[in-house]
């Protein structure tokens, strides 16, 4: 499961945030400094960052937008009358959302979920079910779980257990008609997650392979070539629309199998 990293200068804010999130919703990693935050970004697969006003006012926000432009940022701050310029800066720098300390804690889980990388991936991929010939109820339920859970790899036996069917039954029914095989559907979703990471200049292909649980960089490269016909680095330049076009085009169907 992807986590949430925080860089908050006030201990009260860190405690309030931790209490607001349901237990087990996300692993939460608290950075002690900008350098520690950079370490966390390269050590853990993250869904979003939560930063405080001090980070948003200075060069830290500039560095995050330069090096990790695709990472969702949530600004978490107490309400103060002199923060108007800070809020304008947050808007200019594409901060995804602002949460008010002491007021928005009940809605924080929904806010993080709505703006997370997982939510972006689901918004891009779930509507592709029809185009991928996933029309049966079991196919659609499996696709929903694959999109949500596959980025770091997904065991098909575990997926079958969640869907309460035998693995062989799931494999056969999922790939019926012109639909992809389970393996290639999982690979495609993992590559979309890789594209989300590689859209950030600070991440290398080796970083993406490690964070997403590929056993080697070469395996990620091979998966990208087999599924999308491009290198792993080029995957980072493909948006969801172009990935979908490659997956459903007649020339791509062979790669699904």
Summarize the structure in words.
Helix 11 (182-198) crosses helix 13. The model is unreliable at 250-257 (pLDDT under 50). 55% of the residues lie in helices and 9% in strands. It folds into two domains: 3-115, Rossmann fold (3-Layer(aba) Sandwich), CATH 3.40.50; 119-256, Arc Repressor Mutant, subunit A, CATH 1.10.10. The protein has 257 residues and is an alpha/beta fold. Strands 2-1-3-4-5 form a five-stranded parallel beta sheet, sandwiched between helices. It is globular. The protein has helices at 11-20, 34-43, 53-57, 59-67, 84-92, 108-115, 117-125, 137-149, 156-163, 167-174, 182-198, 205-211, 217-228, 232-235, 240-248, 253-256, and strands spanning 3-7, 28-30, 46-51, 73-77, 97-100. The longest helix is centred in the C-terminal third of the chain and has 17 residues, at 182-198. The chain has 16 helices and five strands. Strand 4 (73-77), helix 5 (84-92) and strand 5 (97-100) form a beta-alpha-beta unit.
* CA-CA gap between termini: 27 Å
Percent of residues in helices comes to 55-70%
What structural class do helix, strand and pairing data support? alpha/beta
Tell me the name of the CATH class of the largest domain: Mainly Alpha
Rg over alpha carbons:
20 Å
CATH topology of the largest domain: Arc Repressor Mutant, subunit A
What string gives the helices and strands in order?
A: EHEHEHHEHEHHHHHHHHHHH
Give the neighbour order of strands across the main sheet: 2-1-3-4-5
- The number of helical runs is 16
Mean pLDDT: 90
Work out the strand percent. Answer: 5-15%
Assign the CATH architecture of the largest domain: Orthogonal Bundle
- Please indicate the count of domains: 2
Using DSSP, what is the number of strands? 5
Overall geometry comes to globular
Contiguous runs where pLDDT drops below 50 for at least 5 residues? 250-257
Largest sheet, strands/sense/barrel: 5 strands, parallel
Name of the CATH superfamily of the largest domain = Homeodomain-like
């Amino acid at each position: 499961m992807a986590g949430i990293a925080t860089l908050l200068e006030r201990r009260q804010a860190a405690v309030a945030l931790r209490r607001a999130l349901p237990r087990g919703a996300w692993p939460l990693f608290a950075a002690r400094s900008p350098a520690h935050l950079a370490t966390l970004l390269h050590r853990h697969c993250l869904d979003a960052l939560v930063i405080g006003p001090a980070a948003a006012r200075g060069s830290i926000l500039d560095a995050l937008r330069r090096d990790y432009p695709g990472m969702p940022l949530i600004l978490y701050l107490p309400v103060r009358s002199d923060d108007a310029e800070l809020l304008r800066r947050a808007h200019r720098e594409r901060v995804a959302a602002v949460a008010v300390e002491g007021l928005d804690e009940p809605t924080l889980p929904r806010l993080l979920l709505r703006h997370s990388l997982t939510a972006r991936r689901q918004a891009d991929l779930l509507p592709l079910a029809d185009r991928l010939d996933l029309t049966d109820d079991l196919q659609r339920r499996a696709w929903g779980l694959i999109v949500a859970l596959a980025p770091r790899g997904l065991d098909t036996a575990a997926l079958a257990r969640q869907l309460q069917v035998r693995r062989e039954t799931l494999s056969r029914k999922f790939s019926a008609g012109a639909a992809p095989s389970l393996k290639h559907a999982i690979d495609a979703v993992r590559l979309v997650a890789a594209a989300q990471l590689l859209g950030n200049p600070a991440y290398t292909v080796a970083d993406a392979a490690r964070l997403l649980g590929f056993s080697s960089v070469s395996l990620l490269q091979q998966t990208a070539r087999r599924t999308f016909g491009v290198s792993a680095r080029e995957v980072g330049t493909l948006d969801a629309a172009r990935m979908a076009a490659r997956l459903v085009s007649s020339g791509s169907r062979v790669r699904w199998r």
